[in-house]
Design goal:
The complex is a heterodimer of chains A (165) and B (132). Chain A is an alpha/beta fold and 165 residues long. Helix content of chain A is 38%, strand content 25%. In chain A, a hairpin with an 8-residue loop joins strand 8 (139-142) and strand 9 (151-152). The chains are: A alpha/beta (165), B alpha/beta (132).
Chain lengths: 165, 132
Amino acid sequence: MPIDLYRIDDRLIHGQVVVGWGQPMNLGFIVLVDDEAAASDWEQELYRMGVPAEMEVYFASVDDAVRRVDEWRADRRHGLLLTGDIDTMRRFTDRATGVRAVNVGGIHHRVGRTERLRYLFLNADEERALRTIEGRGIVVTAQDVPSAKPARLDDLIDGTRAGAP
Amino acid sequence: MSDAPKAIVLAHGDLAAAFVAAVDLITGRGDRFEPLSNRGLGSAEIDEMLRERVHALGANVVFTDLPAGSCNFAACRLLKDRRGLIVVTGVNLSTLLQYATSSDASDADAVATAVARGGGALRVLTGPPRAD
């Protein structure tokens, strides 16, 4: 079974992921691709403690994720691969093939970012990185919860391509 | 407990403010808590907000709503750096009411009593069986 959802969310593992998406998807595992969490036993323990017992959490650096993604795709359970920022997903899709769609679930306000949706704020570098992902033939949409209507990248970012002259 | 620092209630949306308003309505002791919301914040910003408020209030107890939620993960991350901090997750109104009116001498005792009360408040009630 392929990984059902590739998501970018700066809250990492949280209610929307575990409950909002996790329950309707009957999620069996989450892969958190985050170099910091992958290097911290304490962070890993923290997340494992918080999620329901029937949900497994794997932690991976980008390198590990690229190496192991086929193994997770072969898992019979439903899975979700998660990054905490756009650049990590860009680096992952630089090298991992077979990703057809990326869901942008939440990038919150920070200085230098422009509001695109209530839950989505982007700076120029992040817009450019999303365009790079899209340029690989991957459909990029923003959608915080399953009941919301997905918004396509072109509807979020001005018609001019980020980085274009 | 009357001189103890405020406890923090950190929850999704308006939930913490609503909890504290309800505690105040029922007991007049809403001042025992400071409500915080994760609305509009990423993980790093929730961490930063909570750290600042815990430090400013000298809070020893943080109540959060959902074990798998960003509020709870932020509170748990703080456990690493702040000795003596107690995090309670899955909080409900009964837990907060008990904590607000506690006469226990220590935060730990007050939390233990409040958690027991809150856990016991979750019940299934049924009427007579349906005729059909």
